[in-house]
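Troubleshooting entry. The earlier prediction with adenosine-5'-diphosphate gave an output that would not parse, so I re-checked the input for stray whitespace and re-submitted. Clean input:
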Amino acid sequence: MKIAMLARNANLYSHRRIVEAARERGHEIDVLNTLRVTMNITSHRPEAYYNGAKLELYDAVIPRIGASITFYGLAVLRQFEMMGVWPLNESVAIGRSRDKLRSMQILARAGLGLPVTAFAHDPKQTDEVLRMVGGAPVVIKLLEGTQGIGVVLGETEQSAKSVIEAFRGANVNILVQEFIKESRSQDIRAFVIGGKVVAAMQRTGSPDDFRSNLHRGGTAKQIKITPEERSTAIRAARKLGLNVAGVDMLRSNHGPVIMEVNSSPGLEGIEQATGKDIAGKIIEFLEENAVKGKTKTRGKG
Ligand code: ADP
Ligand code: MG
């Protein structure tokens, strides 16, 4: 197969591994810097160009679109979809997962467990928002944050209020969430490919941090998840329409609650913690499912 990977940095571990796995299996793979793809979006026949050359004949595209370039990256991916290239994850599904509110609304509607979460635009409603999630301690999150940056614990009513007001004053969108204390700085990442959990790890935050992100000094180890956790992860990926997803959950007193669903999950942590060849599994899935022209949405909806 001829595969394109949309990624800004070909040297990242995840991207190197995907390229390696594809070549090992005899495929041709090009890494295209997402921001350097240009498009004629009005052409009758959708086209895309790279360094002045027309892009054609790809069977599949692997989107690895960083959070900071979601807008342009999704437009490029949509263009590929309109050209009939099969995407590992569709642009519409990635769009859903990138919007924390939208994805939580979709997951809640499906009856999946989530931490009690509130959202308000107006800082005047701070008291009401705090009341909705059961009062301090609460977790306050920047809607656009990743890697644990912009996730703050408001331990008391007063500190929670100050943080909410500061964020709102800076004109950024936030959500306020019940603090799942019993998860004890640990979370679970279930790696889903094609409706199956292929690997799972537990991340533990450094002793002085409630956040378990590896980027914040957390450590990871392989874990056996419960059947309930497994089905929660699978259903979350399916509801968002993602073939490949990293589903992050907390173990709460009332079962697994989903924190977020990542549409470009990193491979380094999970491959190292579990010793599994996740890149290989991604390429295998692609081999079994990539059919030219067969995309669910072609960027619509
Ligand atoms: P990011 O997208 O920046 O990774 P997350 O929502 O995943 O943001 O939060 C980062 C980390 O903070 C999580 O991995 C978890 O360890 C901790 N955390 C987040 N939300 C809660 C919560 N409601 N209760 C307890 N811990 C939480
Ligand atoms: Mg996270």
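This one parsed fine. The longest helix spans residues 227-240.
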